[in-house]
Amino acid sequence: MEYRPNEIEEKWQARWKKEGTYKTPREGEKFYHLVMFPYPSGDLHIGHWYNFVGGDVYARKKRLEGYRLMSPIGFDAFGLPAENAAIKRNIHPEEWTYGNIERMRGQIRSMGPVYDWEKEVITCSPDYYKWTQWLFLKLFEGGLAYKKKAPANFCPSCRTVLANEQVVEGECERCDAQVEQREIDQWLFNVKKYARELDAALEEVDWPERTKAMQRNWIGRSEGAIVKFLASDGETSIDVFTTRPDTLFGATYLVLSPEHPFLEKVKGDIKNLEEVEDYVKKAKKRSEKERVSGEKEKTGVKLEGVSAINPVNREKLPIFVADYVLMHYGTGAIMAVPAHDERDFAFAKKHSLPVRRVVSEKEELPYQGEGKIVNSGDFDGMDSSVARGKIISFLEKEKVGERKTSYKIRDWLISRQRYWGAPIPIVHCEDCGSVPVREEDLPVKLPSLEDLTPTREGESPLAKAEEFYKTECPKCGREGKRETDTMDTFVCSSWYYIRYTDPKNKEEFADREKIDEWLPVDIYIGGAEHTVLHLLYSRFVTKALRDMGYLSFSEPFSKLRHQGIILGSDGQKMSKSKGNVVDPAKEIEKHGADSVRMYLCFMGPYDQGGPWDPQGIKGVKRFLEKAWKLPSVTKEENDPDLEKHLHKAIKKVTGDIEEMRFNTAISSLMTLLSHMKSPGKEQVKTFLLLLLPFAPHFAWEMWEVLGFKGEIEKEPWPKHSEKKTYEEEVTIVLQVNGKVRDTLRVEKDLTEGELEKIALENEKIKKWTEGKSIKKKVVIQNKLVNIVTEQD
Ligand code: ANZ
Ligand code: ZN
Questions:
Q1: Residues 6+ apart with CB under 8 A from 386
Q2: What is the CA radius of gyration of the chain?
Q3: What confidence tens digit (pLDDT) does each residue in 435-485 have?
Q4: Gap from CA of 241 to ligand 1 centroid (Å)
Q5: Which of 329, 376, 385, 403 to mutate to test the pocket of ligand 1 (most atoms within 8 A of CB)?
Q6: DSSP state letter for 559
Q7: Which of 365, 372, 279 is nearest to 320 (CA)?
Q8: Where is average pLDDT lowest: 47-56, 189-198, 291-300, 772-781?
Q9: Across residues 505-519, what is the average pLDDT?
Q10: Cα–Cα nearest to 787, from 715, 736, 739, 749
Q11: Is 649 exposed, middle or buried (0-12, 13-18, 19+ CB in 10 A)?
Q12: What are the beta bridge partners of residue 373?
């Protein structure tokens, strides 16, 4: 009988579904296995396959090892693409999204994964976003959600707020107009409050170092000091944050960010107020990227009529306002040390300000490194790294400063002026302010709208739907207006792994017992790109819910692994325009899902990916075809020669799957198969079990065809015996022209080619063959190699 994967695969997928084979088991030690849930774009691409297949191989082995495995799947279903597709094709986002979900469910099933579909979550369903809104209310109650005027990208020509993705090099994606920054009321989550823990707790998780480094970089911890400069009004102190307090004697002026409150405070004293206000107004229009860009000239204006005193030497310093200083970092003010900071140096040159060297006699300025301190009174001669601590102590003693750790991370702006998202559950009341919707009134349902374009003022389309926003204030009962912004989809995905534990719960976001039973996630598998924020926000939400008493763990994902990226067969990133996209559905049709699964695992190290090779997939298919021909009538007794290979393979496959080295696991299965000339029954069973995580349909089918009793997955995962993996060794003789030149102990049954190679690489043999041409090689397995050279 021929191997017909498509028939087999359909048969088993239907059977597994009907019999609920992969429902989460009730017994065993828990193992929460998670793959990143997909966005329902319409079609599963090969990258999804790579993610899900690697995950599934790992999950299947865990299941066979007896773990109570939970492996859920769902859809990250809110977001801009649905809305854009809807506007373009005149189909409602909901219809578009659910249509895609239905199609993708079928595509996911065609891979033959172990997902427990009863756990499915869809973030755009009211049953789910009710709890996303509940999460918002909890954060609001806990003081972690707040409203503030924040800059948004505004296109003056389309008159609409743009998402960051819609701004291309400072221009509107649609009309190419210059995008402006506009201050509008937006909601933020106070992630910054957790900065210290988000940074420090990375020590506790088993994640790839590169991913941890990216998180650390985003959080941006900086050790330094706050220094207080007394302003010329005699009462205000301007606090600056610096990472180089050792350069304090080199400060020649201060710089405030255009948003700094000091400007408002000393307005009356500023002689060139008009010029300053003009500058501030212009600066606010510029995006942050423009402001901090290294290439742009450092603009700024001096505040005439005000100054500040350097606390270490009582020197009077001028004050500038300049937009390269940002309000949200440190204190929004800096001491400028042009001799040792590049930006300050550029600014000082432009505005003819003094540059005073305080580190190292010889280096060319600006010099940003360490060295001996000079021109700094009592601190002269110290190493700058030592002076840093000494100056901080001095500041603390004099009460003009203190040690300080700053974090770059910013609060999370969650407002979106968009339709296809979870509405923010707030009512604005003239008397009561921002009032949370009562918990029992959740969900605040997204109304079905025809017109999804933003308003002329750039508000969300919900601001046009009177039936939506007109409501009563939950507090005083008078007329109120609902918040019309929706939440960033990262809010939806920041807690989905909690909902999976209890997806149908109508009373709570999840039952506490179930949460405690399953979480944290034991392994999380997904792409490395674009996940910094998702991981960070999930960690923040976990910590916030923990502090409110809803969770008893601190890190949601104990272990994290990334799959690599699959490239086109030309080695380029897959893209429609290059025509190098691999369509998984077509590959299944041609080769079967098991071959696609196996090939994805075989093509290279899982965390690296690589180019798709059309020949490679044929190779693994041939392997399955060969395995298909394993004798249908098997002997009762084990083949003794095969035992060693079998136990070596058990050891290798088990260890390799655990470490996600799927490619080498498959290699060892290939080697094993080549030794299965006359296997015994138990040996075939073991082979099928080892193959099952990679080619599950194949393994189930063979098990049935060969007439083995019961279900293959009722069998335990095979265990190797170390003793049986030992190599048997033999002594071989190495000769040159019939004379013995060396003897060696080698593994038994090496092939003639392997023996020849050993001989030719042997130092003693090389000595006798050097410079001579080899006429002949005589190899007798397990005994001898004779190299015959030309004689002279
Ligand atoms: C004086 C100084 C002297 C500085 C020197 C550097 C070198 P990181 O490492 O990124 O934390 N800074 C502080 N707050 C700022 C703000 N809101 N906007 C722009 N720049 C700001 O950078 C810390 C340094 O960046 C601080 O140390 C400060 O300049 C500047 F030789 O202070 B430094
Ligand atoms: Zn009210």
A1: none
A2: 34
A3: 999 999 999 999 998 888 888 777 889 999 999 999 999 999 999 999 999
A4: 7
A5: 329
A6: B
A7: 279
A8: 291-300
A9: 97
A10: 736
A11: buried
A12: 359
What is the number of other CB atoms lying within 10 angstroms of the CB of residue 106? 11
CB 325 near ligand 1, within 6 Å: yes
C-alpha of residue 663 to centroid of ligand 1, in Å: 48
- Domains of the chain (ranges, CATH numbers): 5-133+490-567 (3.40.50.620), 221-407 (3.90.740.10), 576-724 (1.10.730.10), 727-789 (3.10.20.590)
Which of 77, 88, 90, 185 shows the shortest CA–CA distance to 125? Answer: 77
Preceding amide of 366 cis, omega within 30: yes
- DSSP code, position 23: S
Q: What is the sign, positive or negative, of the torsion defined by CA atoms of 735, 736, 737, 739?
A: negative
Q: Is the peptide bond before 208 cis (omega within 30 degrees of 0)?
A: no
pLDDT number for residue 182: 84
Q: Name the amino acid, one letter, at 693.
A: P
Check residue 58 and give its pLDDT: 98
- The edge-to-edge listing of strands for the beta sheet with 560-563 is 68-70, 30-35, 523-527, 560-563
**Helix, strand, coil % (nearest 5) of the chain?**
40, 20, 40
Q: Which amino acid type is present at position 636?
A: E
Tokens 């079967």, residue? 592
Q: Where are the alpha helices (DSSP H) in 240-335?
A: 261-265, 273-285, 288-292
Considering every ligand atom shown, identify the ligand nearest to the alpha carbon of residue 472 and give its number: 2
Written as one letter, the residue type at 574 is: M
- The residue among 235, 306, 301, 234 whose CA lies nearest residue 269 is 306
CB-neighbour burial class of residue 630 (10 A; exposed 0-12, middle 13-18, buried 19+): middle
Number of CB atoms found within 10 A of residue 362's CB: 8
User: Which of 361, 331, 357 lies closest to 344 in space, CA to CA?
Assistant: 357
**Do residues 151 and 183 lie in contact, with contact meaning Cβ atoms separated by under 8 Å?**
yes
β-sheet with 479-482: strand ranges across? 433-436, 426-429, 479-482, 470-472
Q: Which atom of ligand 1 is nearest to the CA of 337?
A: 3
Confidence (pLDDT) at 677: 87
Specify the residue with its C-alpha closest to ligand 1, atom 7. Answer: 341
Give SS3 for 182. strand
> Residue 499's closest CA among 550, 560, 438?
550
Question: How far is it, in rounded angstroms, from Cα 423 to Cα 124?
Answer: 11
593-602 and 5-19 helices cross at what angle (nearest 10)? 100
Contacts 24+ apart (CB under 8 A), 399-404: 400/227, 400/228, 400/311, 401/225, 401/226, 401/227, 401/228, 401/245, 401/311, 402/225, 402/226, 403/223, 403/224, 403/225, 404/224, 404/225, 404/226, 404/241
| Candidate from 239, 243, 257, 385 with most ligand 1 atoms within 8 A of CB, to mutate | 243
pLDDT at 792: 64
- Whether the Cβ atoms of residue 122 and residue 79 lie closer than 8 Å to each other: no
Residue count of the chain: 792
Read off the pLDDT of each residue in 675-695 and give the average, rounded to a whole number: 94
> Structure tokens of 410?
């910013």
CA angle 484, 486, 488 (to 5 degrees): 155
Q: Quote the pLDDT of residue 169.
A: 81
Please report the pLDDT score of residue 704 as a whole number. Answer: 95
Q: Is the CB of 247 under 6 A from ligand 1?
A: yes
110 lines ligand 1 (CB under 6 A): no
State yes or no: pLDDT of 633 exceeds 70. Answer: no
Compute, in angstroms, the gap from residue 334 CA to the centroid of ligand 1. 7
Nearest ligand, CA 430:
2
- Determine the straight-line distance between the first and last CA of the chain, rounded to whole angstroms: 60
- Of the residues 226, 317, 341, 357, which should be mutated to test ligand 1's pocket, given the most ligand atoms within 8 Å of the CB? 341
